[in-house]
Design brief:
Layout: H1 3-13, H2 25-28, H3 30-42, E1 44-45, E2 48-49, H4 70-75, H5 79-97, H6 120-147, H7 162-184, H8 188-213, H9 219-242, H10 247-272, H11 277-295, H12 307-341
Antiparallel strand pairs: 1-2
């Protein structure tokens, strides 16, 4: 089980805790709703003026220069989102004075913004995970192409899974990129791109786990293994994006794929007696412990660090160790094949 593949599943499976839905205790609060309604009508909350609300009355049938700037639309810094944010901060301040615990608003904990970053710590840690995957993939690329021996005639690598791991690296970087964007600005487009990228990585990772643990080398056999899973994952992504973003169903799909990969890698490491099996087991069990951070959910400390952010932090060293295992596997297979060729 890889840190990117299994933990990116958690990104999807448990990330739905933070999805915007109008069914939380905070947004059901009558005082909060009254604050948001008044803010949208007046463009102010106490001494705070919401400049984006000035565009609401002029955007319809108005001149082009009165329209909201495109960069404001991209950031989604509109009247409603700002009113919700400042009303949430106001209500949480009032609740804190009454000795009450934080509650969720529209399915998310009350995070404090830092400029345009809605969840700054999670966004920064997602970016760090992206960097770790880039570093791991680049070191793997240099290893198999420039440090390990190449086949004399074809000049290709001895390692049979080189191309598959390259694709995995690119999908991992893509998934963490959209994770960083989603935690920066959470709206419909970034939500779908984040979840779709994570599911795509998870599905591909499950295929890769099957091919490596069953030692499938023949191209025709690889297609037979991959085709049904690829078809299912593609259909699932299309369903989420164009029919219904069903969080419950998506969670079930991701958990099944995650458990399957976890069992595959853990059992294979023991049966194969791989020389780097302890690295693999560390990633598997380390990821299992990190999963507890997602299960044990709690409000953000001082409005910034919650369980999800800590989970992102835990994936960083696991990512480094996982790519270390991949490189060790490449060295092991290359040495074995060269020995057989002699």
């Amino acid at each position: 089980m890889t840190t990117g593949r299994w933990l990116c599943c958690l990104l999807v499976a448990f990330g739905f805790i933070f999805t915007a839905i109008d069914a939380s205790a905070g947004d059901a609060d009558s005082l909060y709703r009254k604050c948001v309604k008044q803010c949208e009508e007046t463009g102010s909350i106490g001494d705070i003026s919401i400049q984006h609300c000035q565009f609401l009355d002029e955007t319809v049938n108005s001149s082009w220069y009165m329209q909201e700037p495109l960069y404001m639309q991209w950031k989604q810094l509109n009247c409603r989102s700002d009113c919700r944010y400042y009303c949430m901060i106001q209500r949480e301040s009032e609740r804190e004075k009454l000795g009450l615990k934080p509650v969720q608003y529209h399915g998310k904990w009350p995070f404090k913004r830092v400029h345009v970053f809605q969840e700054p710590v999670s966004a920064a840690l997602s970016a760090l995970n992206l960097i770790m995957h880039f570093n791991g993939w680049l070191s793997f690329f240099l290893l198999v192409n420039y440090k390990l021996p190449l086949r004399p005639q074809s000049k290709r690598t001895y390692y049979e899974y080189t191309g598959l791991w390259h694709i995995y690296g690119l999908l991992s970087m893509n998934a963490w990129f959209w994770s960083a964007i989603f935690h920066t600005r959470d709206f419909d487009l970034t939500e779908k791109l984040d979840y779709s990228s994570a599911v795509a990585l998870l599905g591909y990772s499950f295929i890769l786990a099957l091919l490596r643990t069953f030692n499938v080398k023949d191209e025709a056999s690889r297609v037979m293994f991959a085709a049904p899973i690829l078809a299912f994952v593609t259909t699932h992504i299309l369903y989420l994006n164009f029919y219904q973003l069903d969080y419950g169903w998506n969670m079930k799909v991701c958990i099944v794929l995650a458990i399957g990969q976890l069992l595959l890698w853990a059992i294979w490491a023991g049966i194969s007696r791989h020389p780097s099996r302890f690295k693999l087991w560390t990633v598997v069990f380390g990821g299992a412990l990190a999963m507890l951070l997602e299960i044990y959910d709690f409000p953000p400390y001082h409005g910034y660090v919650d369980a999800h952010a800590l989970w992102h932090a835990a994936t960083i060293p696991l990512t480094y160790l996982w790519w270390s295992f991949i490189k060790s596997d490449a060295e092991f297979r290359t040495a074995s094949l060269i020995k057989k060729a002699k």
